[in-house]
Specification:
Number of strands: 9
Number of helices: 1
Helix content: under 10%
Mean pLDDT: 85
Low-confidence stretches: none
Distance between the termini: 26 Å
Strand content: 35-45%
Structural class: mainly beta
Order of helices and strands: EEEEHEEEEE
Strand order of the largest sheet: 1-3-2-4-5
Largest sheet: 5 strands, mixed, barrel
């Protein structure tokens, strides 16, 4: 999803990967190293690929590293304001606690309090209980307001605790 350039009637608020409501958060920095670079998208889940050099990948089955955050800081630093992803080899921030805007790829209705999982193949997020090829994020829930309802993926605020 590119940075919004017009007002959309169903857009609740925020940009995927942005810290919600200037809330405090706890995060890490790590080097992005995903097999498919197009999956390095803000607001997606990342796991450690190599713990000794702190490299992370979108999705995966390793230790949860966090949700990639701060797309505006990345855009300012790279002069690439139209991108929603990061190239491999870049150092990025990953939230492990806090409230973050994300896109939820959902097929059913999502409400406040629903749990959050990610797809191991690409780090995309969903709400509910993880199934095969997915990993539940412990302590992660939808908060503040119900996600935008018009289309999937839906913009939502997720709390990592």
């Amino acid at each position: 999803m590119a940075f919004p350039s017009s007002v959309i009637s169903d857009l609740v608020s925020g940009i995927p990967g942005e810290i919600a409501f200037d809330a405090p958060y706890t995060g890490i920095t790590a080097i992005v190293d995903t097999t498919t670079e197009a999956n390095n998208v803000f607001g997606r889940a990342f796991t450690y690929k190599t713990e000794s050099v702190e490299s992370v990948q979108a999705g995966g089955t390793g230790l949860f590293a966090g949700l990639m955050v701060n797309p505006k800081a990345h855009a300012i630093n790279t002069l690439a304001a139209t991108t929603d992803s990061v190239s491999n080899g870049r150092v990025s921030e990953f939230a492990v606690q806090g409230e973050i805007y994300v896109l939820l790829s959902v097929g059913t209705s999502v409400t406040i309090g629903d749990g959050i999982y990610f797809v191991n193949a690409d780090g995309t997020l969903g709400a509910g209980t993880a199934g095969g090829g997915q990993t539940q994020i412990a302590g992660a829930t939808v908060v503040r307001h119900n996600p935008s309802a018009a289309n999937a993926p839906s913009l939502a605020v997720v709390r990592l605790s």
